[in-house]
Structure formats: C-alpha cells, structure tokens
Amino acid sequence: MRFFFVATLMFAGVILLQISTVKAREVYINDWGIVEVDAEHFISLQGKMKPSSQINRMYYDVDNQYLLVSLNGTFYHYCKIPQDVIDSWLTSDSLSEYYQKDIKGNFDCKTNPPPDYRR
C-alpha cells in the first residue's frame, strides 16, 4: 500500500512538472509585435469555433476585452470587444461573414490601446 501511495505521488509530480513547463504560445500581431498568449490571460476559443475558411484561431482575454484572431494565418488584434460580441460571433451562422460585417473596422486598438503583452 505504501509503495502504491509513493508511486502515485511520483506520477502526480511528473504530471505537475509537465504542466508547469508548458510554455505560452508566441504570436506575431500585424503592426504590433509579438504577444505571449498564456493561460493566465487568454482563453482559446478554438473548441467553440465553427469551421471557417478564413478564421484559423481565436484567443480572448476576458478581463481586458482583448481578442487575437488569426485570419488566413496572420494574427490581428481587437480591443475593448465585449464578451457578448464574442458570444454572438461564435454562435453566428458564419464566422467569416460576421467578421466582415461586425468586427472588421471596429474595436480598433489604435483608439483603444491594448494591454501590453509584447516581449
């Protein structure tokens, strides 16, 4: 029984070590720089996205209302984009159409400065 307990603790320690060494993803934001996308600030919306020919990935910082979107492999950022807009976008019939109609040209980070995650 003691061996089982020690082996379990060792296994749990290995898993914790692996989790703690997972590095944040770095993405280059067009006209901004490199942003470190980490679990502390961002949630991945990948699992909530419908398939899209243009939109590859989305990361959202709920606290700062900051969105990173990969369009055809190039990341762009959007500032002060409310959670309800994100929810509407994710439940829309077409991510690409919603982007063209309601996101593009809005939530500009030049007028609403983004949080600085750059390295």
Sum up the structure in keywords.
119 residues, alpha+beta, 4-stranded antiparallel sheet, two-stranded antiparallel sheet, globular, disordered N terminus
Describe what is shown at a glance:
This protein has one domain (24-119). The protein is α+β, with helices and mostly antiparallel strands and 119 residues long. It has helices at residues 2-20, 83-90, 95-103; strands spanning 25-29, 33-37, 43-44, 55-61, 66-71, 74-79.
Report strand %: 25-35%
**Largest sheet data:** 4 strands, antiparallel
The residue ranges in which pLDDT falls below 50 over 5 or more consecutive positions are 2-22
Number of domains: 1
**Number of beta-strand segments:** 6
SSE class: alpha+beta
Number of helices, counting only DSSP H or I runs of 4 residues or more: 3
Proportion of helical residues? 25-40%
Average pLDDT over all residues: 81
Q: Categorize the overall geometry.
A: globular
* H-E string: HEEEEEEHH
Rg, rounded, reads 18 Å
Verbal overview:
This protein has one domain (24-119). It is of the alpha+beta class. It has helices at 2-20, 83-90, 95-103; strands at residues 25-29, 33-37, 43-44, 55-61, 66-71, 74-79. Residues 2-22 have low confidence and may be disordered. The radius of gyration is 18 Å and the shape is globular. It has a four-stranded antiparallel sheet, covered by helices on one side. A two-stranded antiparallel ribbon has the order 1-2.
